[in-house]
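Dear Dr. H.,

I hope your travels went smoothly. While you were away I took the liberty of generating a structure for the chain from your last submission, since the lab meeting agenda had it listed for discussion. I wanted you to have the full record in hand beforehand rather than looking at slides cold. The sequence, exactly as received, is reproduced here:
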Amino acid sequence: MNNILKGQEPIEDFASRLGLKFSDWLLFSRALTHRSYLNEHPEALEDNERLEFLGDAILDFVVGAWLYNRYPEMPEGDLTRMRSALVHTEQLANFGRQIDLGNALRIGRGEMQAGGRERSPLLCDTFEAVIGAIYLDGGIDAVDRFIFPFLERTADEIIVNRRNEDPKSMLQEWAQGEGYGAPDYITSSTSGPDHLKMFEVVVYINGSPRGEGSGPSKQTAAKAAARDALRKMGMMD
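The corresponding predicted structure, in token form, is as follows:
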């Protein structure tokens, strides 16, 4: 589909284009309403943040169940990693871009001028809110019909592209998918002469140590620590 179009697409047109049918149009309208819109339109009663909360939980379940059935031989650690890859902020924002979600958003002028229709966090949050609205209006089967095509187009590509992925990138993606901040890599010790330095690094997530590693450079040691953390969580052999 085309990129962000000029003007705001009417909500009914947006739903029709996606093949969505709602019995409660106010619910779908709320899913597309950013809090910045309420500041300029007092007639709008609620933004989409509660629906975003619901949609986030539903996506975790639906994507997990889809992966379980789609890849019957995939071990638990790889399933966890795949789910994190499919529901993290940038991926959900990309799903939103595929359907020109930004063009249907109801946002305030300031947010619009700041490029809100294209910002990944806003697109991700709104996509989750749409999932929440679909669930409340049509149940889990309606969510499945909507989200499964996105997953089918994306999952195999993720597997192919991530066979040689940097463990630090994998760990950061997992941490963000779980709602934590980026991992912190702390050099715990340094040993050896200048020409044979060895660094010990510990990786922390949400303040807790998750893995440790060593190497001839801080970067190498950090990768080893990330790999150790992933192994301990069953996400890497």
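Two observations you may find useful: Strands lie at 184-191, 198-205, 208-215. The chain has two domains: 11-161, 170-232.

With kind regards,
E. W.
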